[in-house]
Amino acid sequence: MKCIPACLALAAVIALAQPRPTEKSNLPPLTFEEYEPRTGVVLPQHPVTRAKFPFIDVHNHQNGAMAPEQLDKLVKDMDSINLQVMVNLSGGYGDRLQATIRNMKGGQYRNRFVVFANMNFAGLDDPDYPTRVANQLEADIKAGAQGLKIFKNFGMDMKDGKGQRIHVDDGRFDKAFEICAKYNVPVLIHTAEPRQFFDPIDKNNERWLELKQFPGRARPPERYPTWQTLMDEQHALFARHPRTKFINAHLGWMGGDLGALGKLFDRLPNVYTELGAVIAEIGRQPRFAREFFTKYQDRIMMGKDIWSPPEYHIYFRIFETGDEYFDYYRKRHAFWKMYGMDLPDAILKKIYYKNALKVIPGIDASAFPR
Question: Backbone phi, then psi, for 103, in 5-degree steps?
Fold first, then answer.
């Protein structure tokens, strides 16, 4: 009889250890894509729909052949958010570039737009290609181009006649980059993609939802070089052309590692960056980002990429307020909440327009505060 308590205790432990039937739920199935929780946190709200200062967007893409009424509508929308100057990176080259410049800068809005040229990659295996592409770029700059834009196919998808990948630091383009130095025009270059696009698409990948919705954005190793390979090539290009100003697009895809971006700035004084499509990275690390923006306030420019005026509001709110825990505008880029940096006016002015005025020649500075 003395063993009864011990036996009962052992039996209880065994019973607890046994698997129990799964509890059934009457809730309808819900996917991650459908899950949109409403926060129960009540916080002060200071949404910003218009920038505190007029600003220059150094990363935009527009149809240079838009009709007059379309151009009028575009400028009206720019005015609504205090966007004073838009940089159209999709200028093309040769005749197309000249037509874009005439259309966007030839009339009453001549001071509202900047047009960047693009490279012609036809015949890049020809022995005279380096000279030919440099000469075309020089002609485009003389025709009014205020910079050069390099698209993301450069380094990832573009191949030569033998099917070999064109590296970001391929020497065939050195003469063109030296032309930019000669005329003091910047090169805004998009290299690679978010690092997660190159990673396994599994439960640990922060961009899983985006890659599920857009599987073509994945960069598998059997088709693409590694992310680090592309970064190394890009940074080697920057170092080889110290007289050329480079605007490293999208925070150089280092928005999740601002310390590494800072080291790049420390090493290469000819490198700048912009914020197109990466503000969600800044909005989740407001204290460290504020330190970064303070230290490198002369190297960062405002950029958006996709033209959608309401989406700029999140940029303004992150820059200008100390608001906490508010929504980003696109779940697949950020399922987390945003926080404001509450930047001082002196830094805001540099981000919004002073740095762009310094880096991009030919912008009318009279519309901006001193």
Answer: -75, -40
